[in-house]
Design brief:
It is a single chain. This protein has a seven-stranded parallel beta sheet, sandwiched between helices. Helix 4 packs parallel to helix 5. The protein has 293 residues and is of the alpha/beta class. It is 44% helix and 13% strand. It has a single domain, classed as Rossmann fold (3-Layer(aba) Sandwich). The structure holds hexanoyl-coenzyme A (HXC) and NADP nicotinamide-adenine-dinucleotide phosphate (NAP). Hexanoyl-coenzyme A binds next to helix 4 and helix 6. Hexanoyl-coenzyme A (HXC) binds next to helix 4 and helix 6.
Length: 293
């Protein structure tokens, strides 16, 4: 849907077709999860998989129309489960606080926080303004801290909980100085919070996806210029990741199966971080002939 306002445009999401449970279908029964950026992409599929496992969810980001459309699709696909939506910008602490208060008024609890909101684009460091660099750090890293701290103050400190930070398998990729810095800081934050908050029964973990098909992140990073088969050749498991791969990993980490796991970030990339070429020349060409995305 497009309204003419850049911020209001979005592609309607679709749920997984013919979903078959691998995990026990009631593994998150009675739980509530707050997923930032859950109106699109990987966050949307995390919300869907959580709902399919008995969880009620709250999704929040800047674009309320997109969130409302996602809610409709999710509640239709998973009858009996609720999806609460709220508009907020993770860079604005007062909006985050209001959003968390609304979630607590709606559900009376929040058991799982998934910090999934992020912003990214391809840009060589030499062309990156300080504001552009800071903007990505503000959304990804400071946003992850702000939302975590807000949920901690409002609920986790007294009740315990689980935080899953969505990171990325970025090691020296060109045109990703901003996102790579932001995600490395998130991985470090995962460890620090796990140590400080562990005694309060709060687990803090991360998931670092490789390239994930059918996402904004993938198309923004040049996915549209190389065929998926070409990309897959560079990956040990010979395929791109799927949103379902990431959502199932988040489900595992958020479940009791992972009750002794904290302070670590699990890479889910088919091994690509070990082998993939950094595609410098192709990326430079792509950025040179593509309008800003
Ligand atoms: C260079 C850019 C740029 C680009 C923006 N900027 N786009 N610089 N190349 N393509 C600069 C602007 O010029 C400005 O700096 C500063 O960044 C802020 O830009 P705004 O447009 O004002 O920012 P804002 O409206 O807040 O939008 C944030 C955004 C946008 C990140 C730029 O793309 C966004 O909202 N993205 C959300 C969705 C998204 O990106 N999803 C993908 C996540 S995937 P100046 O100096 O001019 O003021 C992901 C993958 C991780 O994270 C790793 C995978 C391997
Ligand atoms: P996406 O659909 O664009 O998801 C990002 C979400 O963040 C959007 O729903 C967006 O919603 C929200 N967001 C952006 N800025 C925000 C802000 N200031 N405040 C609140 N919410 C904000 O992209 P995706 O590819 O699924 O990415 C999801 C996560 O996976 C990200 O953390 C990303 O870094 C990570 N990741 C993705 C890939 C990949 O291949 N796709 C690889 C590695 C890691 P609004 O626009 O409504 O605010």
């Amino acid at each position: 849907m497009a309204t003419g306002n850049k911020m209001d445009s979005f592609e309607e999401e679709k749920c997984l077709q013919d979903y078959k449970h691998v995990f026990y279908p009631h593994i998150l029964e009675g739980k509530v999860a707050f997923i930032t950026g859950g109106g699109s992409g990987i966050g949307f599929t995390i919300a869907e998989i959580f709902m399919r496992h008995g969880c009620n969810v709250a999704i929040a980001s800047r674009n309320l129309l997109k969130l409302q459309a996602a809610k409709k699709v999710l509640e239709t696909a998973v009858p009996g489960r609720k999806c609460f939506v709220a508009a907020m910008d993770v860079r604005k602490p007062e909006q985050v606080k209001e959003c968390v208060n609304q979630i607590l008024s709606e559900y009376g609890r929040v058991d799982i926080l998934v910090n999934n909101s992020a912003g990214n684009f391809l840009c060589l460091a030499e062309s990156l303004s300080t504001n552009a660099y800071r903007n990505v750090i503000d959304i990804d890293t400071v946003g992850t801290f702000t939302v975590s701290k807000t949920v901690y103050d409002a609920y986790f400190k007294a009740n315990g909980g689980i935080i899953v930070n969505i990171s990325a398998n970025l090691t020296g990729q060109p045109m990703q100085a901003h996102a790579a810095s932001a995600k490395a800081a998130i991985d470090s934050l995962t460890k620090s919070l796990a140590v400080e908050w562990g005694p309060l029964k709060i687990r803090v973990v991360g998931v670092a996806p490789g390239p994930i098909a059918d996402t904004v992140g993938y198309s923004k990073l040049g996915g549209s210029m190389i065929s998926e088969d070409e990309i897959a050749k560079d990956i040990p498991l010979q395929r791109l990741g799927t949103r379902k791969d990431i959502a199932h990993t988040v489900l595992f980490l958020a479940s009791d199966l992972a009750s002794n796991i904290t302070g670590t970030t699990l890479t889910v990339d088919g091994g690509s971080v070990l082998t993939s070429s950094r595609s410098m020349n192709a990326l430079v060409e792509f950025v040179g002939r593509t309008p800003r995305m």
